[in-house]
Amino acid sequence: MRGLIAYRMFGVECDGAMQGLMLASTAGHPCRIKDQKGKEQVYVDFVATAPWNSPGLVEIPRFSLVGRVLIATAVQLSVEEGFRGRIGLHALPQAETFYARNCGMTDLGNDKRKEGLRYFEMTPEQAGAFLR
Length: 132
Hints:
23% helix
């Protein structure tokens, strides 16, 4: 029961409907990136936007910044926890470009321990650039 306090759930609600959700953990996921190795970070367990906000599913999304708002929230949580904006996550194939290009995260390659999903991390410097 003690470990559950490390998990936080965030949502974006607008126009009376949930537009996106994120589950993040503040413990047990040390950084892997070389210059940050072993330091604490926020691990994003999942990010989901409503189907009507996904450019891959609809021609014109109702709200186009839901994913960015949720990632910015993870960065802010990391800052509040004293982790200086460091976050990490495993990306679904359709989201890899979003994390690499739109968020400016470092691609650390496929992770055999997590179903071969690509693993990304954001350094404090990348977090600062993302938030600007």
